[in-house]
Batch of 4 targets.
Target 1
Amino acid sequence: MSKKEMTYLERLRIQMEYAVPLIRDLQRILGADIVNDALAHRSESETSEPSLKADFSRMQAGAEHFAAGGALDYEVIASDADSFDMNVTRCGYAQMMEELGARDIGHLLICNLDFPAAAKMGMELKRSQTQMQGAPFCDFRYRRKSWSDQHED
């Protein structure tokens, strides 16, 4: 099976099978709070200047990419030229992290990276809950970042 034939979930599983034991070792040696804070800071520092102009017409295709192979069940709530709202009603990424005994850090390794990805695409993501952290669904609310938000001093 080539890389192109593998789903995003399958590729991520391979990464997590290596990362989780290393993170657990670091938590044991350094302390869980220190390692978890470092992981949280990592995703916050990933935010960079937008490299793409927000294109909400491609969001459905993006959702399908991450849902490939049955990784997600989701419903699009609203979609227009300036926004894209969806709820993930079943998350295979949370299930995968549960199987790896790492659901408690899944939001730090997987979910939190949605925010810098959105920023890079010229969008703002608001999400109040995730299945990874025990909610019944993940609520993704994407909006176009205003010009002033993208060019703050």
Target 2
Amino acid sequence: MLLDLNVKNLGLIDSAEITFKEGLNILTGETGAGKSMLLGSLNLAFGGKLEPSIIKDKEKPLYVEAVFSISKEHQREKLREMGFFMEEDEMILSRKYQNGRWSNRINGETVTIKALQQVSEILIDIYGQHYPCPKSKTVVETHGGKQYWRHYE
């Protein structure tokens, strides 16, 4: 589960820190408020490509950090297989862009873009208007304290 998202020097954002709560979190706002910028920053944290024109101040570094709680054993097992061991059930992905170069880290250790991308496949699924749902997926939805399992083909 995504716990925190920290963004600095991206688009309209000087500095933002968002803490997410368990359950459904919804980003709302007027057009141009920065919702897409926040999703884009999460994409950057997972090794996505940067369009340099969205850096707010070219003299300062762009920084994104995503903190995840790893509470599911199958996620922990896959991450261990990749060589990531966590003392706590948290994983911190961070990227810093400065002077045309990226610094990529997971839990403080330097990693490759490929490692960030592989970790992203374990940690998060994003669905929405421009992020299609996979052809086959089981989804658990919670409404009024009851869980509903749905399988999509």
Target 3
Amino acid sequence: MNLRNILIELANIIYRDIQAVQCAVDERKGIRMNIACNNGYFELYSKQDIEKLLRKSSLNPYDDIWISGEKDYPCLAILINGAYACVHYFLNEDGDMWQSIGDCEQDILFSTNGEEPAAMPGDCVISLEKAIQCAVSFFYTVQRPACIAWREL
């Protein structure tokens, strides 16, 4: 084994250790997100759990995922249809809310609360990857994610 391969293997070990420590830190911090989606209600405790949930949900025809911290507000609502998502941020129960600004070239169907799918305009549709970034950011801050552009509704 040459020095390059040893360094690559060492970097991989360090990366795995960092990921394991980050999961442990997340759990020790007591970070907990309440989730409501088509699969029911449950709690998630790490950013990896959030990422897994969204990726798994993208395999369903439609999903509607609500994420909140210890209180009901603020919360993040993510509509998913395959590789597409539309995200809403609700600051409070008074109706202060924002919607993702996207650049999809077509309208995309989404379903909320298991109802019939309805088309959302492409200018509010973002990629699943950007929605995952939003969810992870919200997981740590419980604030409107700064990783995408928003329009106030």
Target 4
Amino acid sequence: MLFRSIKLAQSGKIIVMGAGNDAIILGDNVYTKSLIELANSKEMKGRLIIVGATRYCFCHSKEQLSQYSNKPGKTKHCFMVAPGDNIEGPISFNRRSVASGTSIAAPIVSGGLALLMEAVPGLKPEEYVDLLFRSARKKIIVDGKNIYSEEIF
């Protein structure tokens, strides 16, 4: 995954990927250590977005990091969150389904990025990523003892 992602970024592609659903800080296991390496690789050239999932807590009337979502750790510079809890979407044969996870949140960010690229043509890939992060809502996400300031799409 690491080599393939770097190769895609070097070819001018932007990589948007789910952070994972293990409720850990990125870097706490072998798989997520590779994400840290990828996020901090000079070869990525600012073309990586790692997406965590949020949920809306009706009892407190606020958005929170989903309990299962991995947390940014040393990837804060390329970590963004988006709604990823109980998201309804289409499946085959004109049916609908509800799903949760960072893999559900990542396409929301990808869609926003695509709209941004259409609205502001001609930028370099890393400039689109920077613009997306600068235009995202800033929000404090509380997760147990940890407090994160996150960009929320």
